[in-house]
């Protein structure tokens, strides 16, 4: 069934145009192999879906992210988290085929990354049960519809959906879990999926705690804190775009410094829970949607600093309902700054 | 005054185009009578306003819905609910005339259904007092403005307002009631306007409880649970569109089964409080805004299932503020699925 | 630096077109002086920014508002409030220059009023600390970005941003304050920045309490209650537009009467906390965005009455999060009524 549907998408023109910086040695044979095999092509879309969580439209980045999550989930004793991610990814790509989405978006993994994050987040915040897997499958399918809907709603404004579909569908399902006895919240210790950090280790003045906060900010993008995973994620990011990797580190660094100066709780900072949203904002505004230059960098840094504050605001706004904030602050700040810049970029500078 | 305003709308062209399936025997003389009398015409608009709650643009469906509500309100000892609905309907149609809305929308009852629901909901959730009636009149007038505003805001997106103006204005007024000593909440037993269901009667495995849940899902669309009303509503729906009646039953059935399997509270399910939103979603996506076919049916069923979950989410999100969720989950899911489908329908299928 | 940037905007065409009713005697020499001096020009933009809080695009109104706030803040022993307003205004105008916003908007003060309100509100609701000033500076800069973003998002709908950027950024920062130990809420007695009103003085039937409520509704637009400030604000408003001053008084009057009749808490009404949002709605719909006439006046009055209710709703919705409602009810109602009217005004009346 899936194979038949995939066949319909084998025109293969949209793909040719995309370049994969820094990996052309590997990319060409992989692309040729995908052209010849329906299953490999389906695999390629799913891997790119994993890669798009950090805006990387290439299979190798996606593969490294997947390995990072699998390794982290195994090491922390929560294999259901990695399983949920893979299941949701496959369901979403299949649903996108059934819904006849556009070829280019499908081949770039744009219908996968929201489901992938949802598939990781649900088993992180809900206890394992048969109904959890129903939630993952249903949520993954709906995430494709939400991706189409949000993209359509934002079309008049000319801004991208980023991870809004993930935040919307996941929060709805987590809120819904309160109403049904068939699903239950995961044990509090598992929430946020952090290795417990003793207070003395979270001292912001200890270099090790600082480095740990930096690493966890990276791995918390995928809803968990595990240092080896962070290294793999950084490599996966650098494989796709060195500039993205640089802004990711800069965003996390800014978040750590700003949060400590403002008096955030050290344990949250060291666990990476304060850093992953500013990191995403910095990558999006500095490396993905902005032209290289000093003005773009200043703008991205301002946005990352503001994301630290908005993250605090989201905690005050969303956690009273018994659900996490996910990447809501990243979405809000990125939308604000992208919307504003449209106007600015239309206008030539004073010298021009 | 109203008569004079109505006169301005007696061009009578817009009306001719609409067909009224299954009731052409009655429709033609009624239309002729309306053409000759300003007051009958005003009555026709109001009846269609009642009919549009379930998307029916004909006076007979509206009349049957009105009788259903009057009967139910009388039987349950809350005549103020029926009175509020009629009062709001008349105020809204008059306000629409003063605001000089478009003829076609006015004649189709599109400026009435949100006010009608508001006029039923306010006396259900607020105690009777002089200020309650001020709220009903003011809310009905503002609901017309909200209908125009929401329609205008959604125009770039190409999706309909459905019952969003009702949800918006009613929730604002119910929230406002907390701030003024002149209005008070209705007694808790009256909230939701349900006949008390003893726990043993709500057992999902008893066929009678199941049938009751099905019926109440229909009558709760009009904010109450009363079986004879449900039958009248179903007849009113079938008179306008057999397909709509079919999807209504299917939506309610799906909601009951899904909610029970997920472990929802049996009493809520049997009282129809879990079913009326999925019912509305199924009718909207399956019978009103979708072309007939298997794909549309699958899509509508997926949406109805998701509405059961979103309804649970809305309870967790909205009830902490001391107000009901009304049809918020239907609005959200219908918008998401309609927005997404725009994209899909634009693209020809693989075979085309 | 600022001087150099200002120089780039010295084309001076956009300014010529605007008329300043009722002050042409003073306006011409002032305009000439601004044309010759970069610093005066920068001052002019800032003063107009203060004036735009009440939609007045002239420097004299802005100056009178500034004096009103300075006087009130001094008299009530909270100079930080006036200081915050001025600081935010200057930062925002500088940020707007760096962001290369459009000349006309900059010269009309449209990038200043949201920051000005934010600069007054933050020191009202947060205790003085080094971090408070960081919040003011950062918030002022971000308010310019939010102003651009909201304007861009509303462009397809054809409605203005009004004070939405102020509400958005200020609420985010006040919510964020909960997450950081470096900022703390101001003492409860200072919140709302009201002179304590003894219950007997707040009796709505005492003419003095009624007049006080009227005056405080004016001064609460700038987040405080002080009668001499109210007089200055009214003068500043009348200097710019007698019609705006009339609708301001009418809006406040309506709010007082409606709130008392509905049973609002007398102390809140007398303190002006119920009146400033309806006042803003009345000015916006009656004097700024509507053509003069009876229909516009009726529409503005209906909107002002509804704003009293929506203000009550916002208190129930927003205060549980430990933050004030600011001008959220004014923004919501004004948007609804402007969106709706677009449709109405497009359609010629029945006689035309």
Give the helix level of chain A as a range of percent.
55-70%
Number of E-state strands of chain A: 0
Enumerate the spans of chain A where pLDDT stays under 50 for 5 or more consecutive residues: 1-22, 189-194, 343-352
Report the sheet-strand fraction of chain A: under 5%
Computed over alpha carbons, the radius of gyration of chain A is 20 Å
Q: What sort of overall outline of chain A do the alpha carbons produce when their principal axes are compared? A: globular
Count of discrete alpha- or pi-helical segments spanning 4 or more residues of chain A: 17
Order of helices and strands of chain A: HHHHHHHHHHHHHHHHH
Largest sheet of chain A: none
Largest interface, C-beta within 8 A: A-C, 32 and 38 residues
Assembly of the depicted chains: homotrimer
The structural class of chain A is mainly alpha
Distance separating the two termini of chain A: 56 Å
- Look at the structure and give the mean pLDDT of chain A: 86
Q: What would you note in describing this structure?
A:
3 copies of one chain form a homotrimer. Chain A is mainly α. Chain A is 68% helix and 0% strand. Chain A is globular, with a radius of gyration of 20 Å. Chain A starts with a helix and ends in a 6-residue tail after the last helix. Chains in contact: A-B, A-C, B-C.
Summarize the structure.
By secondary structure, the first copy, chain A, is mainly alpha-helical. The first copy, chain A, contains 17 helices and no strands.
């Amino acid at each position: 069934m899936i194979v038949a549907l995939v066949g319909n998408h084998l025109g293969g023109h949209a793909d040719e145009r995309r370049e994969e910086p820094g990996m052309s040695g590997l990319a060409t044979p992989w692309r040729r192999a995908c052209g010849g095999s329906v299953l490999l092509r389906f695999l390629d879309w799913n891997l790119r879906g994993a890669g798009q969580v950090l805006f990387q439209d290439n299979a190798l980045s996606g593969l490294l992210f997947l390995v990072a999550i699998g390794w982290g989930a195994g090491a922390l004793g929560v294999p259901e988290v990695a399983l949920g991610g893979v299941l949701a990814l496959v369901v979403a790509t299949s649903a996108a085929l059934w819904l006849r989405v556009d070829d280019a978006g499908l081949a770039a993994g744009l219908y996968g990354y929201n489901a992938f994050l949802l598939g990781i987040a649900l088993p992180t915040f809900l206890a394992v049960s048969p109904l959890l897997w129903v939630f993952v499958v249903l949520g993954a399918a709906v995430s494709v519809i939400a991706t189409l809907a949000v993209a359509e709603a934002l079309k008049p404004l000319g801004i991208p959906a980023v991870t809004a579909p993930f935040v919307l569908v996941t929060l709805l399902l987590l809120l819904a879990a309160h109403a049904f006895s068939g699903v239950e919240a995961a044990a509090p210790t598992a929430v946020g999926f952090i290795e417990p950090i003793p207070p003395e280790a979270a001292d912001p003045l200890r270099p090790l705690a600082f480095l740990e906060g930096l690493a966890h900010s990276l791995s918390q993008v995928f809803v968990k804190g595990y240092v080896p995973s962070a290294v793999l994620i950084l490599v996966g990011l650098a494989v796709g775009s060195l500039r993205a990797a640089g802004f990711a580190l800069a965003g996390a660094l800014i978040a750590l410094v700003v949060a400590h100066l403002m008096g955030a709780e050290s344990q949250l900072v060291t666990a990476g829970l304060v850093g992953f949203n500013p990191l995403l904002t910095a990558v999006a505004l500095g490396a993905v949607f902005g032209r290289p230059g000093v003005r773009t960098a200043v703008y991205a840094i301002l946005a990352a600093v503001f994301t630290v504050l908005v993250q605090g605001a989201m905690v005050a706004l969303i956690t009273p309902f018994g659900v996490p904030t996910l990447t809501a602050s990243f979405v809000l700040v990125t939308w604000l700054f992208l919307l504003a810049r449209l106007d600015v970029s239309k206008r030539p500078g004073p010298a021009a």
